[in-house]
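Same chain as my last thread, 395 residues:
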Amino acid sequence: MYDEVREQLRAELQEIEESGLWKTERVICGPQGPEIVLDDGRRVLNFCANNYLGLSGHPAVLKAAHATLDERGYGLSSVRFICGTQDIHRRLEKKIADFLGKEDSILYVACFDANGGVFEPLLGKDDVIITANLNHASIIDGIRLCKAQRRIYGHTDMNDLEEKLRESSSARRRLIATDGVFSMDGEVAPLADICDLAEKYRAMVLVDDSHSTGFVGKTGRGTAEHWGVEERVDIITSTLGKALGGASGGFVAAHQEIVDMMRQRSRPYLFSNSLTPGVVGATLAVLDMLSETTALRDRLEANAEFFREEMTSAGFDIKPGWHPIVPIMLYDAVLAQNVAKDLLDEGIYVIGFFFPVVPKGQARIRVQLSAAHERTHLERAVEAFVKIGKKHGVI
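reply #2:
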């Protein structure tokens, strides 16, 4: 049987490659950081990791992970409700809730699982989810697992959102779901406007803050803090795998009843192994660090401002904004890959993004800045972009 399937798959794979949409995985040999080592021995500057605060290799984070590994073991070999809950899991859930101003939180092995498990326990066939059309794939998949009706509103289009709220007025429950920061563009959702409409039409609000938690807002509490709507957002999903250490793990932070329902009915939580103790211990240390000082998020903010200004002055087409996600628009998939390849030869590690990760005709290089980047790193990156941009006629 597989002989026939094999030929079909080979044809599909060949079509992907010939269309210029083939995604190649590069291999690094060593820890994540502003400078990394490739498997061919080259040392390059990394500008495409989610290591926003530079904590993936921070000594205090590593120390906490090592200590927890020694004290609590490698893993729990179980799900939470059987024998997979340690005291540190509950301590971290409480600390996350306090950090975000919520009543409680619940841990998952990834934010993809958090988004995959948050909708089904709360919403059924008599309910409606109103979701932004550029939301992350994990939100889309989580909604698909839920029996609630779905309405899709245009990206940041509040008139369309209001229309969808009017159309669903007969629903038992309504939930608006949006990314806090849209990861391909670095664009921040208009949460104040969304919350206004939610209150007007008696809907709940869910925000995925994966590209925000730890560094967006004056104290890094995320997009809700940025807009001053902390008490108006009902559910926050986010990750421990980006700014908060960069390993793995996700969570839902919300009202107590919502979190309690997740513990009873959320399938990714009930049927997946517990988050490993080392990650839990390291994240506890990260949250302590971020509660003591905003120095890292302040440095990240300054890095983003400098890089955006320099690249704009050089003539590159950049999506406007202030977020450390900086999309360098190239529009052509093959061009994006060629520019990324040539930049690697200049010692700058970036990746071309193209369909299906972004819409067709919207290919780009997504630069991601870190608090660990020094000013000299940023200057070297700009210099390399200018050189390669001129080579390919981009500027």
